[in-house]
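**Backbone geometry record:**
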Amino acid sequence: MAPDPADPLAGFDLEGFWESTDEGLYQDSPLDAGLLARVEADLGRALPASYVKLLSTQNGGVPARRCFPHEACMDGYLAIEGILGIGYGKDYSLCGRFGSAFMHREWGYPEHLVPVCRHAAGAHVLVALDYAQRNAQGEPAVVYVSEEADYEGWVLAETFEAFVRGLVPAERFDTQDEDLRRDLQKIDTGAFSSLLSELLRTFGDPDLEARLRRVCRELTLAKGFFALHGEPLSELVYDLQFLLYTASKPSGTPEEYLRAYPAILTFSDGDFDLGGYSPSFVEAWLKTRRRKKQIVAHAQGDLRFTDAYRAEVLERVATRFPTRE
């Protein structure tokens, strides 16, 4: 059915669009005229009528169909994790903690982009309304933009309505099992980065390499893919990276350590790497460790674990991830 400008999403299955849960990341309080007006005023943009109508049924969440076929994408489709709600109440609401203002301020995305979907790759790419590209009716296009490609991207759909109507089930492109197999093979046998290899050699514990691999394997099996976020196993990997790095290198200030961090295992010159990360998670981990005084500044100004917390990390990983059953 062709879109009807007078009746956005006419004939569309609004009732069956959403999954039953969204893990608390997207679904904001019910949308009303006052909330809509406040968000549009803060954004300085009028939102598309189809977006407003869709979110009037549920204000953000995880759609049942999450793949948008597009020939420019590496796998022939683009995968989203959720649609941002119109509001302030969730991390991934339009005006939430990781919403539009965050993407402009922290990641440098241009102001004419308003994110509407969270991409499966996180903040490195953006699925957004592009108010610099509008159709004859003034509606912004939906675009895919990459931070790693200097914010270059391409148009996915001329309107948000066309984008939503074009979403298909993930099963059509399901490579999850194969992707997981590749991740596990990389974790089990992949070469570490030259920096991580150096840190492990210097640290001198012959079992720690195997334990690090086992932590990452368990984390990957739990998630279905290899990525670090903010849950306990990810924090344990952050702990291990910091422990190894500071055992032989000066950490410097928090900012200096965060600049050095990606070379450990995020962007590797070996096979074992994440291929990308969201700085906000490792920044939050570092702030928490400092607030709890588990990481302190030594006389030279460098950051270090306290002796007690260093011992706790090593005991925890040795107990939970023994090298021999």
